[in-house]
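dumping these here so i dont lose them again. two proteins, back to back, each one seq then structure tokens. dont judge the mess
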Amino acid sequence: MRYRRMPTLDPLERLERVQRVTDTALSHLSVDGLLDELLLRVREILDADTAAVLLLDEGRNELVARAAKGIEEEVERGVRIPVGKGFAGRIAAERAPVALHRVDHSTVLNPILFQKGIKSLLGVPLLAHGDLVGVMHVGTKTRRRFTKDETELLQLVADRVALALHVRLSDRSRVVIEAFQRTFLPEVLPFLPGLRFATRYLPAATAVGVGGDWFDTFVRPEGDIVLAIGDVAGHGLPAASLMGKMRNALRAHALMGGTALDILVRADEFHRHFGQGELVTLLIGVLAQDLSTFRYVSAGHPPPLVIGPEGAAFAADHHANPPLGLPQAPSFVEEEVAIHPGTSVLLYTDGLIERRDESLDLGLERLRSTAEQVVNGTSPNDTITDLLERVIEGPRPTDDVALMLLQRDATPATQLEFAVDARARSLLMIRRALSRWLEDLEVPRPVATEIVMGVHEAAANVVEHAYGPAGGTITITAKRDGDDVEVWIRDSGTWRGSSRGDRGNGLRLMRGLMDDVMVDTSATGTVVVLRHGAVA
């Protein structure tokens, strides 16, 4: 087998490449901004297809995907790797570089890498003053033997990056602020086939502490998706405290059921009773289970921006609803937006569009015209980053900025891939995601039901047997190939309880529902492959 090799670097070129990654121009960036920029440069200097940074979560002794370029799904899906397991976990445990020339489920714990075609990997530890900060790795889609020079170069870059991260993450006030803000932002974005999400939060340049801008999104028990974005007047802990109260109250109001209007009316009652007259703008929306409509109601908040194949336009605002915090209960009116395939919807706070000495109309038009240029069906994370940079265009705004972008795919995907916690509550998400995907592919309902039941049984076995109290992850990958549908259910645990060769009624049920059932076990976990033919 032939491997690609990069030319040997002379000392001067190596120094120049390191300086391009760690120059002083990066010193003003936040943690997320620093990681985004340096990964772009690392990919360039090492001619790699992907680059990623995983930071250490000391409390859980896990590496958490924090930034990635090339395969952003690692961050979007919240990949976590236990220290000591898999490729990245081995680097963290040994605190030494590791190169892989065979990337599959036997060598890496994160299936996204080999499923996206990565053939070779090189990773190094992020160490600062002897402490492990995380892991940095690069990968290529062609087989490649990384040289000693390349390994030393990546480690040199990582050493400098680790020091910069250590300074930022050790700044006590910064850690408190970021932790407080993250507490009130959703940890995991909803997953539904045919729909993609991306979010951003940018603190104000002049604000002291956290601000009052926030967003939230989650799936209700009935299967529709709730989205909320709001802005509490002011900055600092008082604004953030009210923001947290509103966010938690809204979740409770949404679980009571009803429309977006019902939720907002309850939120207004809550704020008039428990608030102290603070003004709060808020937009609540409910996305239908079939993704066809987005019904929302705004309380003094900027209207959604809808971007489709024919251009971008703000959703009609037929009734200018006032913000929350008024003494008398106002009368709110709900609006509806059709979400056709290929349509994107952007929710945002006014910090994105407001500028001193400039009319609001100019800010809205700048956002609309920029969105027409950048929202083009690419990765939502890349899209929202590009949009934010172009609209801000210069110094950080004097007000906080929160963004939520949802994109409906133009055509059904022939492959489905996602990961969930190995918890009983995740089984409903698995069934819904798989059912939705099969419906998009027009698989007959009786066949789809058998596939969903088989996958549910395999995933339930993982929940029951694969992990201990600490839990773990179930990865689901499904693919349609002609008249066949194959589904892979993966875990990285050590099975307890029943025999590995015969799992009782569950395995018999899977074999009765599916045409083929294969079970592959190894030291890195278990893979169950289910195939159902004649799905056309």
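---- next one ----
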Amino acid sequence: MRPASHPNARDYNDGSKEKPVIWTVSVSRLADLFRDITLEYDDRATIEPIDLGFEDAARHIRERMATERCDAVIAAGSNGAYLKSRLSVPVVIAKASGFDVMQALSRARKITPDIGVVTYQNTMPALKEFQDAFGFRIAQRQYATEEDARAQINELKAGGIKAIVGAGLITDLAEEAGLAAVFMYSAASIRQAFDDALEIAKLTQLESQRGRGTPGGAGTADTLRAKHGITDLRGESAAMEELRQTVVLYARSPATVLIQGETGTGKELVAQAIHRENPRMAAGNRPFVAVNCGAIAESLLESELFGYEEGAFTGSRRGGHAGLFEAAHRGTLFLDEIGEMPLTLQTRLLRVLEEREIVRVGGTRPIPVDVRIISATHCDLEQRIRAGRFRADLFYRLAVLRLMLPPLRERSDDLIPLAVWCLKNALAALGARPHPNLQAEINACAPLLQSYGWPGNVRELRNLMERVALFLAAEPLQAISPGFMLKAAPELMQGVTAESACAPLAAEKIPATSTENISQTLARFDGNRAAAAKHLGISRTTLWRKLRQDREQSVVR
């Protein structure tokens, strides 16, 4: 039996001004944390727990939404990811912060030095440096399904791991395997999810009220939205200014756009900005739907894009399922990694672009769609055309407007400001305050950062700064010096010249320290040269030599 409906969970059409309705979904110990936090939000929203998971939860929610109202759903981990891809209602995924992970590892370390961390789909690369610096033995595993998670935990147990850190499902399975389990979520992270859900729920209500009585209006609240705009394209370089101007220009046109650029340059960010800068899209809260063509199996990608009719294949939903083209109707569909789309689907996509209609898998009825297509790729599509892996006619239909994103190594003026901004955000996410001299300390590391090639571009810079923030949060008094930066990110050594690498300390040749910086640093440490040298990432001998050179230059001047 399903839980009784809350009296406030009425249909949208009643016209009443009610509190937002939020459902929390969990089948693990996270439910207790949800329940505790719910009391704090009782005066601002109608919140109801659903003690189900995965397909059971998805089916339950779809059935109830046929007659009831829900403005947002909160879930976590693999359960949240599953629901997000299968529900039309906005799903907010509660995420453990870096500080949560640190606290969980600290609790686990009190139990045993042999710790396993099991996370959904992706591991945490920053933990490798963290364990090396603080003497932890951390074995990381990722999982996709419950059975996969159980197998990973059993493998860790066989390898001598005594404690497992993870989300609710993982800790339940760890205890089932006879291991110590440490839950990684904190109340602060769950409150953030509730805050996010509250904001989304209010927006959903507002859009629903605007859409009443207008064709298609009721569906607007259930679609995805572009979260980023042109102000999120950060950087003051000439290349970024030109990019922003092009975004504004392309936003005025309904033509297709092909965005090309290396991985991590922000292709989806630019696509969202183009969508948001279009007055028609922004004013009407039109949907922005994104799909990675390289991340979904060919057999699934077809049904995800075009939808399917009931009975189209074994396991298909009753009543069929609308695809992403239908979800993006009157808005934008962003096809990321378009170069990975199978040839058979390229033919179907070309027909959609020509006919402006789709046919669901297993169906015969054409469904008109009004969708703007923005696609992106990191590969050379023209080379793939020559290799017979991409249709030339589709390429020209997708690339009416073209945009090439500059790699980070060609935006040297933006590198340091971006590093500072990323580091401040990462520290804030950990609940740590930035050092008052953070800007000057990052400036001292500029030659080191600028000598690196940044193959992962802005995404790599952001991830690296999250790692640096983790180290700083663990050692709050630690100054950011080139030596410290190399300790946290040894890959930066790839940019250090052979001459520098032969020096006693590679980092000593890196800082471009001025007389004023050295004097300020000495004053900061009350003339203690050892402390000043450690802060700058150089030896005391190098510090003394720089001081002598600066004095000699001052005499000449």
